[in-house]
Every structure is written in C-alpha cells, then in structure tokens.
Amino acid sequence: MKSELNRNYSELTEFILLGFRSSPEVQILLFLLFLLLYMVIVLGNTSMLVVIKIDSRLHTPMYFFLRNLSCLDLCYSTVIAPKTLATFLSKEKKISYNGCATQFFFFALFVGTEGFLLAVMAYDRFSAICSPFLYNVRMSQQACVRLVIGSYLCGCINSMIQTGFTFSLRFCGENRLDHFFCDVPALIKISCVDTFVNEIVLFILSALIILTTTTVILVSYAYILSTVLKIPSTHGRSKTFSTCSSHITVVSLFYGTVFFMYAQPGAISSPEESKIIAVFYTLIIPMLNPLIYSLRNREVKNALKRIMMRKTPSIDL
Fold first, then answer.
1. How far apart are CA 127 and CA 243, in angstroms?
2. pLDDT number for residue 308
3. Under 8 Å CB-to-CB from 71, ≥6 apart: which residues?
4. How far is CA 270 from the centre of its chain?
5. Which of 176, 172, 166, 42 is closest to 104 using CA atoms?
6. Kind and range of the H or E element at 177?
C-alpha cells in the first residue's frame, strides 16, 4: 500500500484548477468580468506609480511607501489573474506542479509583504503626526529603504515556510484543485496524508503576522488619536486625521479579509465561499487601493490635475 502511494505521488506532475464550475456562457461572462477587474488594477496602480514618480511634491516617505504598495498590488494580482483568465477559455484547466508551487510562492510573498508594509505605513503616519520634529530623522531615505526591504524579507520568510510545508504534502494522484489558483486551503483539502501540522503552521504564521502587524497599526493609531484630540481647532483635527483615512480604509479591507480566510481554521464552510473571498483579496482590493488613495487624498488629486494641465496644450487666440 505504501509503495502504491509513493508511485501515485511520483506520477503527480500537474493540477487541474476546477475554478468556478458553470456553463460555457457563464465562463465567458466571468472571463470578461475578471478581465475588466484586472485592466482596472493595471491602469490604477500603474497610474499611481507614474504620478508619484513624475510629481516631485510626492517624493516623500508616505508616497514612497504608497508607490511600493501599488507595486505589490500589481504584482500579486498579476500572479493570479492571467492564469485564471486563461483557464476560463481553456478546456484543459491545468497547471503544472512546479507552476503551482511557483504561483503560490510569489502570491504568499507579495501578500505577506503587503501586510508588513501596511504596518510600516502606520508607523510613518505616527512619526509624522506625533513626532513631526524628528520625522525627517526617523524617516530618512535610508530608513525608508530599510523598512521596505525588511517588509520583503519578512514576506519572503513567510512564503518559503508556507511553500515548503504545503508542497511537502502527498496528493496520491488526486490533482483536482477546487479553486481558481493554487492556495493552501485547497491544496490541504486534496492531500492524502494527515495535514494537522500544516494547518497548525498556517494558523500560527497567519496569526503571528496579523498580531504583530496589527499591534503596530493599533498602537500607532492610538498615539495618533491621542495627539489629534489635543489639537484645539476642529478644522486642524479634521485636516490632520484626514491624512490617515485612506490608510485606515485599506488596512480594514486587507486585514479583515485575510483574517477571515487564513486565521480561522474551518471558518469557511464551502469551496464556493472560499473562491468568492479569494476574488475579493486577489482582485477587488488591488483594484480599490489606488482608487481609495486617489479619491480620498487631496495631494494625489492635485498631482493628477497638475499632470493633466501640463499635457493639455494651450490654445493661442
């Protein structure tokens, strides 16, 4: 029996992504919907990168971190969306074993890095509002680069651990993955060996990342709130706290979804529910982030206006 399991395991070279099981007509509609979402993601995040690069007034630590956030959103949605779009139009919805491992590694890398970067952005707002005279020292160019590199390193460590544990599992010939991309819960479900250790590792890693980063975010905003409440004028309080509103919205969307998906073993009752939540954090959130920061941020809106005015030719009468 053991030799048979080993034989079946060695023969597994690919997975079949079952995705959203529906009629061909619905598959076409889903393809168009996902394509539209991905095009908005690319356009929105690329525009944010270009605007921050072009406008010298946005060359500050806050927008340096925002540029990296846009880059991460673009990267992890690109890890998922093109393959998903291809499977909607393909009869053989296959992904190679190595391709699956690679997709999951980079997805976990970029998502994990984004979690740490959001905590760094909260610390940046804390430094700007609570210690304005020390801000340029704390958030020097070198410090900002180190914080971003540190975020990537933490995301990489998380990704290597999760990928190593997940793809050490045996699947014994069962290769039908009830998802539209390679994700841990779906892979654990089709494994033919005891996955208790993997589920515990997933829970501990997710909980550790969420607890450490949310602690930084909550402590930062507790100090920010305390400082803002000491400002005598209502206009001053509103103006100061408005610089944080976009970040709070993005953090709420990201951490709310990640916590519900990964930090509560068994919380999601059906594969279809898991797929819908996955669509939210792989496509909807990367689409919303640049919209949130452009529509709710006066400096970004002003930068867009300045760029548009430069490109609009003057008409001499």
1. 13
2. 79
3. 45, 49
4. 23
5. 166
6. strand 176-177
Which pLDDT value is given to residue 8? 47
Count the Cβ atoms, other than its own, within 10 Å of residue 313. Answer: 6
**Which of the 8 DSSP states describes residue 122?**
H
Phi, psi of 150 (to 5 degrees): -60, -40
242 band by pLDDT with thresholds 50, 70 and 90: confident
Q: Above pLDDT 70, what percent of the chain?
A: 91
> Does residue 42 contact residue 290 with C-beta atoms inside 8 Å?
no
Phi-psi region of 77 (alpha: psi -120 to 50; beta: other; left: phi over 0): alpha
Q: Is residue 1 within 8 Å of 161, Cβ to Cβ?
A: no
Per the DSSP assignment, residues forming a β-bridge with 257 are none
Six token digits for residue 38: 């991905």
Per-residue pLDDT at 280 exceeds 80: yes
Helix %, strand %, coil % of the chain (to 5):
80, 5, 20
Closest residue by Cα to residue 48 from 69, 27, 29: 69
Tracing tokens 């509609």 back to the chain, one arrives at: 29
Give the residue ranges of DSSP H helices in the chain: 2-11, 24-54, 61-89, 97-130, 135-138, 141-166, 184-190, 196-229, 234-262, 271-279, 285-295, 298-311
Amino acid at 307: I
* Entry pTM: 0.90
* pLDDT at 230 exceeding the cut of 70: yes
**What is the Cα–Cα distance from 142 to 133, expressed in whole angstroms?**
18
The angle formed by the CA atoms of residues 255, 51 and 76, to the nearest 5 degrees, is: 35
Burial tier of 51 (Cβ tally within 10 Å: 0-12, 13-18, 19+): buried
C-alpha distances in Å from residue 57, one per residue of 136, 168, 169: 15, 49, 51
Q: In terms of C-beta density within 10 A (0-12 exposed, 13-18 middle, 19 or more buried), how is residue 2 classed?
A: exposed
Strand-pairing partners, residue 94, are: 16
Closest CA to 217 of 184, 254, 168, 190: 254
Q: Is the CB of residue 125 less than 8 Å from the CB of residue 220?
A: yes
